[in-house]
Amino acid sequence: MAGDSHHGIVIVGGGTAGITVAARLVRKLKRPDIAVIEPSAKHYYQPLWTLVGGGVFPKRASEREEADFIPKGVTWVRDAVTEFRPDENLVLTRDGREIGYDFLVVAPGIQLDWSKVEGLKEGVGSHGVCSNYDYRTVDYTWECIRSFRGGTALFTNPSTPVKCGGAPQKIMYLADDHFRKAGVRGGSKVAFASAVGSIFAVERYARTLEGVIARRGIETLFGHDLIAVRPEAKEAVFRRTGSGDEVVLAYDMIHVTPPMSAPDFIKRSPLADDSGWVDVDKHTLRHARYPNVFGLGDASNLPTSKTGAAVRKQAPVVVGNLVSAMRGEPPVARYDGYTSCPLVTGHGRLVLAEFDYDKAPAETFPFDQSRERRSMYLLKKYGLPALYWHGMLRGRL
Ligand code: FAD
Question: Is 341 one of the annotated active-site residues of the chain?
Answer without folding.
Answer: yes
